[in-house]
Amino acid sequence: MSLELQARAEALGQTLPPLLAEAEMLAATVMLGEHGRRRAGLGDEFWQYRPAHQGDSARMIDWRRSARSDAHFVREREWQAAQSVTLWVDPSRSMQFASTKMPTKSDRARLIALALAVLLLRGGERVGLAGLALPRSGRSQIVRLAARLAGEVDAAEYGAPLAEGMVSHGRAVFVSDFLGDLAGVETALARASDRGVRGALLQVLDPAEEEFPFDGRTIFESMGGTLRHETQKAGELRDRYLARLAERKDRLATLARAVGWHYSTHHTASPAQVPLLWLYQALERGR
Amino acid sequence: MFTLGPLGFLSPWLLWGLIALPVLWILLRAVPPAPIRRRFPGVALLLGLRDDDAETDKTPWWLLLLRMLAVAAVIIGFAGPILNPEQKPAGSGPLLVVLDGGWADARDWARRVERAGTILQEAGRDGRTVAVIRLTDTPQEVEFQTADAWAGRVAAMQPQPWAPRHLEDWAEKLPAESFDTVWLSDGLVHDGREALAAVFQDKGALSVIESPRPLLALRPAGFKDGKVVVRASRLPAGDPVEVEVVGRGPDPAGITRELARTTISFAAGMTEAEAVMDMPPELRNRVVRFEIEGLRNAGAVSLTDDSLKRRKVALIGPGAAQEGLQLLSPTHYLRQALTPVADLIEGSVTDAVLAGPDVVILADVARLAPAEETALEDWVSKGGLLLRFAGPRMAASDVSRAQEDPLMPVRLREGGRTVGGAMSWGEPKKLAPFPETSPFFGLHIPDDVQVNEQILAQPDPDLAERTIAALEDGTPLVTRKALGEGSVVLVHVTANAEWSSLPLSGLFVQMLERLAVSTRPATPEAADLDGQVWVPETVLDVWGEEQDAGKIAGVEGGVLAKAIAEGPGPDQPPGLYAGQDRRVAVNVLGAEIELKAAVWPADVPVEGLAAAPERSLKGGFLTAALSFLLLDILAALFVAGRLTGFGRAAAALALAVFALGAAPGGAAFAQETAPTAAPEGPKPGDDFAIQATSAVVLAHVLTGDATVDDMAQAGLRGLGDRLWERTAIEPAEPMAVDIEKDELAFFPFLYWPVTASMPTPSDAAYQKLNQYLRTGGMILFDTRDADVSAFGGSTPESDALQRIASGLDIPALEQIPGDHVLTRSFYLIQEFPGRYSQGSLWVEAAPADAAAEEGVPFRNLNDGVTPVVIGGNDWASAWATDENGVAMLPVGRGFAGERQREISYRFGINLIMHVLTGNYKSDQVHVPALLERLGQ
């Protein structure tokens, strides 16, 4: 047992730095600035000088500025408030799928999530993992998130988003293939909207799932082996499969729109920057 | 062994396995192809989807058929199939193999020998003793030996160029014990064949092998109406056939060539056919042999002899044409005798001699003019034959009286002699038998030939020697003497019936023939040949080739006549036999010999020559089975849907390769399922085209002079560098172009340094060049001679330019005008120096109506690019730079020289700009007008 644990820990230690490094590299491709609140408040950045009112303590007066005129001025800083962003990356087995020469969906989803976390943390937000880590800010949170993400494997065939751990009026990001039952997604979205949480759904799909390049007599099995479907001519199912997939995407988009979320699809064959940027902007927009 | 038509099986019980095929069919049909298992998360979306048709859970019929074929091929293959199995019962006892070995066997001798070899092999396997005889040999004792002993001898046997004869003689030489016989017959009736066959049948079983190949033979050529007639025979008479007959002989240079050719058409069912060849006498006399083209067989060759040669005979009678009865004319009988067999020339002696006759006959001509005499004497001493007849005129003259005339064989006594006339004693004289030395020896003398009058010869010492025919009383009738290479013959009687009845008899014609004055009709009779020994000159071998006769002994005339009539034999091989003055041909097939097909007794089995060899088909069937199984792999993959993308392409390629290279059995299937062909590969010229079109490429024409070519290359490189530095044109490394081979269309500009030694382009190259010029290409011709030729002189290069340009489609040229667009297409220049600066430049002439617009310093010129620019300033040398960009050749002196080089570069840049932008700079003239219009 301890041996297995050790082995897994070592494997984790090996995978963690690359995942982290990759995520950092990915995050570095996005330029960002601190997002101020556009009003005076607690913060680091200078916002404005205002004449001192009654009640302002002498400590608050900016003497340097006041010396240049007759009145007293108080130096105000811009209010900077951190957001709580909760990430949920589908840990189910269906995410382990990868067609030839492609990264698994799980890999890609974790990479995007972690890169997003790096970006957000660098921007001063608090980032947490649904059900795994509470939202916190700071550099150390990155390492923690990376460790949690890498360790997370679920036995379920298809995952459903966890709504717990979401901070009210925070942000949430669900990364999954959304191939399972959509009821779980609906529930999660409903609870999220109840709490005023808004965010984005990112559907990560393998090219094979998008194109269905199969033919001939085939038995399709789910990743866990619990679901199976046998066909004589897989090629003839293609159109109907694609129709169902389109229908599902449409439904996801409708769901997302209904609660003010954003929805996008990402294929593991395309670069990861695109969904990262999209996610970042989607979070910005939702603010 | 179990046989099925031409197929036999070594282990036929294996064929029962074929019964299992239908069972296998049902089994295979019930078992669908194995499914592929795939992990696929999208299965959640697939749940509940149904297949449209469920048929494919059974194997498709064609795949089943393929597998059935494979299994059937395996079963049949292991059953040991054999094509043409040998089923003959093995014989026992000695075996006699009889070969005809005559000329008719030559048509397929190799197959006969092969067949005989097969028979010997079989006999050897059965342990039988064997003897082989060739019927054209003289009969000899037949000894049975082992087959091995005979095998080598049979392989070395050759047929003989005559037919076997007297076959019954062989019967005595046969051994007493009984034996079986295989007779490889040539299919012809031979003398004594039936008797010998009967003897063989008495001794044991006789089987006959005959070739079904038709036999073609050529008979001796003859004359009909002055034209050569060639006749051919064939056996058996079948469908219409045409054969080409070729006459060969020496040409004037003595080399044997084809001189004439004709086609002989056999009508259906006919064995004989003939064709008429109309040849001029000169050609005809040279023909040595006729042969059927394409046949190597002595029977297909007929040699020609004197019978085909028509001599040119000049017949000259006494002076003026006499009025009187034709029968009394001195030349009447001669003409009658000679007209069918010779070409007659009549006229004066000098005219006749000029025509080059073989023989000149003077009938009762006594006196000849001195000029005629000299001409005749010259002609005779060069090999001519002068035949003179006596007559009243000669008797009355004193020709050769006191002294022997060179043109007379003997001296004559005055007057003549009349014997047996009304006024004389004695009977008319008859001819004495011809002496052995006489050319007439052997001719039969008819009784009714009588001589009434004659002229007499002086009894000179050599009279007896010169006499070749005499009367009973010994007076000479015909005398002859040699003169130079020719001879002079005098007949002491007239050529008409006045003095003797000789001209009325057949003897007269025969005598003329023996004197080689006339030639005999087609077939010589025994009498014609009798009394002489005929020595073979050339003999024919069985393949129809003429061989030197060597030391074959001569033949008596009678024997030869028999050989001609009945066909040649071992002692009289076919060939050309020479007598004293004549030559006679003995051909394999005489004019009268009939070709008859042999008929064998009903109980003798007759089979063809072709023995189909046993062939084991096991390998073929197993290969086919393997091919089917390989195809099945691809087909199964296809059916199971595992043949995708790259795999599909690879399979198609494999199928294509398989279809090309596989056994014929597999090919049909491969083609059925191979949907696509292999993609096209790159072509040989592609590299050149890609290199030429990947960028702007300046090109120069290869002149064949390495120095000039290198300089042109360097010059274009230097110009390209300047273009790259100063303009938007960024040319790639210049290329060399061979105008004969390379495509020109890729290049906007060709620099053509003209060398004196450059060959004129071929027609195809001119076509290409003109197409190039017409479609917008430009060639800069550079004579590199400082344009010396402009002052009326010429240099080798300018001559070469004229020579080369004469085939080019070049418009009218003029010296470059000051307002030509070349002067301003990039730089403003007014001169165009290269290494030389004096020369002028020639470009396409401006249209006559070109005029300058108001306020514009240029005429509106050159709606297009001049196709050629011609000059002699050696631009390439001025432009040339080495790899490092350093100028290779000095130009001018000092700074002025460098200035000249700079101007020369500017000219080059202007030129390339002009090539690439056309009349753009000319159109700039209109810019103010355009701007003005826009402003409105």
Task: Give structural notes.
- The complex is a heterodimer of chains A (287) and B (936).
- Chain A contains eight helices and ten strands.
- Chain A has 287 residues and is an alpha/beta fold.
- In chain A, the strands form three sheets. In chain A, strands 5-4-3-6-7-10 form a six-stranded mixed β-sheet, with helices on both faces. In chain A, strands 1-2 form a two-stranded antiparallel sheet.
- Chain A starts with a helix and ends with a helix.
- The mean pLDDT of chain A is 80.
- Chain B is of the alpha/beta class and 936 residues long.
- Chain B has six domains: 118 residues, no CATH class; 131 residues, von Willebrand factor, type A domain (Rossmann fold), CATH 3.40.50.410; 94 residues, Sandwich (Immunoglobulin-like); 204 residues, Rossmann fold (3-Layer(aba) Sandwich), CATH 3.40.50; 61 residues, no CATH class; 241 residues, Domain of unknown function DUF4159 (Rossmann fold), CATH 3.40.50.12140.
- Chain B is 30% helix and 19% strand.
- In chain B, helix 18 runs antiparallel to helix 19.
- Chains A and B meet through strand 8, strand 9 and helix 7 of A and strand 3 and helix 2 of B.
- Strand 8 of chain A pairs parallel with strand 3 of chain B, so a sheet runs across the interface.
Going by helix content, strand content and strand pairing, the class of chain B is alpha/beta
CATH topology of the largest domain in chain B: Rossmann fold
Please work out how many helical segments of chain A DSSP would assign: 8
Strand order of the largest sheet of chain A: 5-4-3-6-7-10
CATH architecture of the largest domain in chain B: 3-Layer(aba) Sandwich
